[in-house]
Write a structure and sequence with these properties.
By secondary structure, the protein is an alpha+beta fold. The chain has 4 helices and 3 strands; from the N terminus they run ααβββαα. It has helices spanning about 10-35, 45-70, 100-115, 125; strands at about 75-80, 85-90, 95-100. Strands 1-2-3 form a 3-stranded antiparallel beta sheet.
């Protein structure tokens, strides 16, 4: 359902909120797996890096939440399915919904996750010199 007078910025805020929810879940899951796997000699280093990224996500989520509140937008339901996610929201007393396919969500999630972790894609291999 189309919400009257909702701006592209407001839709972008909703999409960012949804992305960040799933990024936070992935960071939490990955951190647990690293701690419990027993495969790494120093898992705490990697867990600390993920925790730092998760902390950055929390800061951005707080900023987005403040902005959503200012604009009178409330996301009240998020469903996860095989095709992607669906969110229902209220914007200035009008109801709307947003659907995002997993294929579209994955690439943006990975890009943002790298940013929150301070990792640049492809940079590692470019500067490696042979021993």
């Amino acid at each position: 359902m189309a919400v009257p007078h909702i701006s592209t910025d407001e839709l972008s805020l909703i999409k960012s909120w949804l992305l960040l929810i799933f990024i936070r879940k992935v960071f939490e899951r990955d951190s647990r797996i690293l701690k419990d796997s027993g495969l790494l000699k120093s898992p705490q280093v990697y867990v600390d890096m993920i925790t730092s990224g998760s902390d950055r996500v929390a800061v951005v989520m707080a900023e987005i939440q403040n902005e959503l509140t200012k604009r009178k937008i409330k996301i009240y339901e998020i469903k996860q399915g095989e095709q992607g996610i669906e969110a229902r929201y209220v914007c200035r007393s009008y109801r709307g919904e947003m659907r995002i396919l997993w294929s579209a969500l994955r690439s943006e999630m990975l890009s943002r996750m790298r940013a929150y972790l301070g990792v640049q894609q492809g940079k590692l291999n470019e500067h490696v010199s042979p021993i």
